[in-house]
Amino acid sequence: MPRTKIDLPETIDYLSILDEHGNVDQELEPDISESKLRALYRSMLLGRRFDERMVDLQRQGRIGTFPPIKGQEASQIGSIFQLRPTDWFVPAFRETAAEIWRGRSLESILLYYNGYNEGTLLDRDQKDLPLAIPVSSQILHATGLGYAANYRDSGEIVMVYFGDGATSEGDFHEGLNCAAVYQTPVLFICQNNQWAISIPVKKQTHSQTIAQKALAYGMPGIQVDGNDILAVYAATKEAAERARNGGGPTLIECVTYRVMMHTTADDPSRYRSDTEVESWIKKDPLSRFENYLIDKAFLNDSSREKIEQEVRKQIQAAVESAEKQMQDLGAPVDMFKHLYADLPRQLKKQREELRAHLTAAEREVDNG
Amino acid sequence: MAKMTMVQALNLALQQEMKNDDSVVLLGQDIGADGGVFRVTDSLIDTFGEKRVIDTPLAESAIIGMAVGMAIHGLKPVCEIQFSGFAYQSFHQLENHAARMRWRTQGRLTVPMVMRAPYGGGIRALEHHSESREAYWAHTPGLKTVIPSGPRNARALLVAAIRSPDPIIFYESKALYRAYREEVPEQEEIMEIGKSNIARSGDDVTIITYGAMLQPTLEAADVLAQEGINSEIIDLLTISPLDDSLMVESIKKTGCAVVVHEAPRSFGPGAEIVSRLMEDAFYYLEAPIQRVTGYDIIIPYFSREKDYLPNVRRIVLAAKAALQKI
Ligand SMILES: Cc1ncc(C[n+]2csc(CCOP(=O)(O)OP(=O)(O)O)c2C)c(N)n1
Ligand SMILES: [Mg+2]
Q: What is the ipTM of this complex?
């Protein structure tokens, strides 16, 4: 009578479908058409190559600080695939591949990381939030969007991304708690890449998994091999269907690895070993997916090379076009734009003050 | 016209705006069946249901953070933070997101939301329940900070706040909630945000104030009038963006000024007001501007709060000092 086991409605699964060599569990293998598989592959490759190029550009001083995504392509592309254009996408700041999938241009990403506000510009009706640097804060926006979607009975779902470090913030707790209370259609995608700058996940939480935290909120949670695009795809598909059918939120933990530095301003040799990094590079999400596609005869050396060339061309064209755009952007007085619907009088005065300084400074230059 | 307390007037504004526009939703702690701890949302849940009068979990960051998401979606959330002293748990949602979403997305996504919060001293409350920290919000680009001074303007300004395309911090003086009743018209009334008001005309001294401090300032003006000193009182109503036009015009008449607020003095709204007057009315000033404010300390527990808050005597003396009559 006095002490019994509490029977919780949920348990936590771990899902892996494609192992690190590209061998597939045929029972679990999701049914995805050849053309979709190719699209997934192309997006992963584009994400990877663009990321590498961004790091190079930063090293050459052609853009500012950049947070690389290398190693996390499967977590991002496998999940974002489930989102329709009419659904909401709420990124943190390390979702470049997912952002590109949603249609954000490479040019705009280049502009953003080279310090131009214009780099946040998206199509007016794009249902994407801008990236969120204050860790975890975006989680609540997703819950609010989900509430509004329910209120309007719009059928939209929301997908929000965050890292392992973000799960220590209060906003993670508040966001998941409220999402469960209001049964909002939100997919909480945690990219557990093992590190939050220099803090390993073991120091971030004493929980065995991040996924199990879902139990505390009364929502389903699942841990997946985040370097296995098929597992991410399958878990997200199930959660998205549940959300669309009124089943509320899900927490999905994608176990992956941040192969590169935290940002280009970081030196990971201060806090982690090369051996650790190498062990994860062996689990690379891109090469195992490539092997899978080759085994299925959906890819061969020449088609692979063709995609590779296309992707490189696309990136090169974007870099050239963005650098050209940058020359025409950046009228300094534009910093006053879009702060309020109508600029208050005092701010107009300050803008004129800046304009006058600029004109005077130009004149001084002209006069030598 | 019915005579209403500020609480009733605010309730009227919420009720009418919710009736007008189904995108207006309320969220906060205990705002449903309980009607809010000050009863501002009294019985709204009966009319509009729990989907629009949302009792939230006890989480301020969630209230503001969810409101940001809801506003981006097209709703017009009106958040109640139970006491302004607990708004700091949501500070980053306002500073990092509500205030910047329009700017960060080049105008694509906007956050038309209101954060209502009771502020200020004078009701013998527990600690953390009496602060006047409007300067935090006024210092944040992208927000607008509105502080009404009576039932009628509270109603008209709350309507404006709900309809505003920009995020609004709406500070309500607890001391004024039930201090007195005022005629409030049943039909729609709206005041423009960012406009100050002349609460009393005069040409000897300009006294600039807002919120709860309007009452002792009006009383001080009566005392001064008995001595033949005519005060012109500017009621700011909006702290940010600060409307300096009326105060500058007033100084041109009076040549001297007093600023009154219950917030701490250093870096308080008074500092900005005085700077504006130095910039735009310096040559009309005949004496240093006086500040009557809370001291730069934590507001004391309530047995001493009346000596912390500006009062009639301090305002009268400051006005005379400004007039160089003492
Ligand atoms: C609220 C907040 N605190 C600190 C930082 C500085 N910071 C940026 S990223 C980061 C680590 C985030 O780790 P995680 O959530 O695991 O995401 P990851 O960087 O691994 O993608 C920190 C501490 C921040 N941006 N926001
Ligand atoms: Mg991490």
A: 0.96
